[in-house]
Amino acid sequence: MSRQPFVLLLSLIAWPLLAQEAPKATVAPPEITKQLNITYNPDKDADPVRHKLDVYLPKDVKKFPMMMFVHGGSWNSGSKDLYGSLGQTFAQQGIGTVIINYRLSRADNNVKHPDHIKDVAKAFAWMKANAAKLGGDEKKLYVSGHSAGGHLVSLLATDDQYLKAEKCSVADISGVMPISGVYAITSIVPVFHRPFGKEDEMCKAASPVTHVKGSLPPFLVSYADADFLTLDKMAEDFGKKLKELKNEVTVMKLEKRNHFSIIINLAVSAQDPLTKAMVGFVTKK
After folding, report:
1. Model's pTM, two decimal places?
2. pLDDT of res. 18
3. Is the pLDDT of residue 10 over 70?
4. How far apart are CA 27 and CA 20, in angstroms?
5. Cβ proximity of 171 and 203 under 8 Å
6. Helix (H) or strand (E) holding 67
7. Mean pLDDT in the chain?
8. pLDDT at residue 247 above 90?
9. Which residues make Cβ contacts (< 8 Å) with residue 244, sequence separation at least 6?
């Protein structure tokens, strides 16, 4: 493979701020409630920032589906705090939304795979345990994430060891919605070195495509027409393998979007094509 895709993948390190206000509507949107900075890891050594989550809920609604969203940022940056608009947008569509932090691989720590995915699994277990208390339906639990977050939710749904460690299973996931995700980790790409190391076997084990098998939850795989190079092919290849093994999958290419605008438009607009597709995916009978 040429160097150009790898060089462009380094751009995953950069991350746009999504702290935007949703467009003003002429009709008052449905009311929501929110609970911020909830601890999902009760361990004594839990990180006081990274082991927290925010919850956005439709008001005066019962038994609504729940979606856990995992932010991107190359496994070394990003925060749940940038996604309040996304939580609000989906809660207004009747979907309880849990937006999580997880530990990040940085120069000043030793966080590496599988630390990130272990956190994601623990957060999912929290959502499952608390869905009914929040007014949601514990049998309608969905996961979504952008970029590195798309990688993590896809790995969560394909490699069952992490959910099993939390006394959950892949069967608890009703559907998976990765956005501009990374499905194949390789040791020759520098951006992967800090979070995954340089050992081929570790990178292979961290790759969702490695673990694709039959009887997985339904997938809605999306990417942008002007996404980072290789992410489009990864999405198509991942979708193809899921389909070959008789899984339910839809691969959606978003026109006039790039790696950043795909998530910004999703976050702030209920009328965005991807927002509509995800709401339909979650609420279909």
Report:
1. 0.91
2. 44
3. no
4. 19
5. no
6. strand 64-70
7. 92
8. yes
9. none
